[in-house]
Amino acid sequence: xxxxxxxxxxxxxxxxxxxxxxxxxxxxxxxxxxxxxxxxxxxxxxxxxxxxxxxxxxxxxxxxxxxxxxxxxxxxxxxxxxxxxxxxxxxxxxxxxxxxxxxxxxxxxxxxxxxxxxxxxxxxxxxxxxxxxxxxxxxxxxxxxxxxxxxxxxxxxxxxxxxxxxxxxxxxxxxxxx
Length: 178
Prior knowledge:
Elements (H helix, E strand, L loop, with lengths): L4 E2 L5 E2 L11 H10 L13 H14 L4 H9 L4 H4 L4 H4 L3 H19 L5 H23 L21 H15 L2
Antiparallel strand pairs: 1-2
C-alpha cells in the first residue's frame, strides 16, 4: 500500500509530508463538495464545501477584505486531503492538528501569499463558529444555550448537488484569487 492518496486531478499526494506543488484548488473544491460536515451525523447531507462557501459569503456581506473572503473559503482546505474530524475528537489528536495546520499554512501561502495573522485567524474563526451555531441547531437539533449570532446573510439547508457546490466554490475562488 502506498503512503499517498491519489487526488481528483491525479496527483499522488502525501498529506503527512505534503508538497505544496501537489495542492490544487480543483482538488480542494471537488473533495470538499463531497465531504459531509459533522462526520455525516446530520439530518441531511451538507458538505464542507458548502460550509466554506457560506463562510466566504458571510465574510463578503460583513465587508471583509478580498483576502479575508478567500481565507474563509479556504479555511477547511486541509480537510480535502486529511478528511474532517469533528472538534471534540480533533482536540485529542495533536498529530492530526499538526498535519492540518501544516496543510492549511501551505494552502494560505499558495493562494493568499502568506499565512493568516492572529487577527485574521480570529475573524475566520468567528464566522466559522457563527455558522456552526446554525449547523448544530438546524442539522442536528441541538439545543443552543448561547444567543443566536448576528448574521448578515440567512441560509437554508436545502440539498444541493455536489457538482453545483464544486462549481460555486471555484467561481468564488476565482472571483477573489489575485
